Amino acid sequence: MNLQVDVQEKDCVHVFKIIGEIDAFTAPTLKEQLEKVADQPECQAVLDFKDVNYMDSTGLGVFVAFYKKVKAVNGSVKIVGLNKRLKRLFEITGLDDVVEIEMESGDTNGTV
Amino acid sequence: MWLRLKWKVGTRMAPFDYIEIKVPAKPQYVGVARLTISGLASRLGFTYDEIEDLKIASSEAITNAVRHAYDEDEEGEIIIGCALYEDKLEIMVADHGQSFDFEETKKQVGPYTEQESDVQLIREGGLGLYLMETLMDDVKVHHEEGVTVFMTKYLGRERGEADVKQTAYS
Q: Can you give the pTM of this predicted structure?
């Protein structure tokens, strides 16, 4: 029931590797990490969900807030590594139509 | 946190096992309750996907209760009651900390109206309530001396594509 967020910057792209469970208790940790880069001009972010084994609306809320901030500075957000369960959560809430989702966790350099 | 087990055998209603959990209204206990419910669902024989649905739906209800207590600046407790039947799991989440008579409370919980959902519940529950309704077979919310959420999931009723197609944002 813990969450770890590893941040790496590569070619001006911030890669967030999220590990663990995102719920009411851990969501503030994720929020804090994301907010460090959210208002950088033309911020480019990749969120890797490969090792997220649980997420609910608190995580989605953090994500949506981050997404809005990044869009406001003409940045971009890409999601990678979603498993079937998390993909379904994005589909149910309609977020899959809004945000760029790459199903295979791998090449993250091609962020637009 | 403490765990209490009540065994009701041969009562007037269909027999079920009832498990009640009481936790402080703090975010760090949402995951603890979630794991307990996951264990109970597994015991009943729900599939992996159904258990994941139950984990999210119950966490949403408990998170709402934690937020409610936080907004009111209360050091409250949350009661989570689980009734295990042969063919379904009923989960009740109450944010007013009083242990309840499961059958009595169940009788008082009616379907919530469109009006309520527009004004109060959406603001309180938001995406959380939407997820509860999408992932469970039945959800009722009762406002009296706090908020009680009552939800049911039946065994062997996988929520299909139809549920996935309706979206909150589009």
A: 0.80
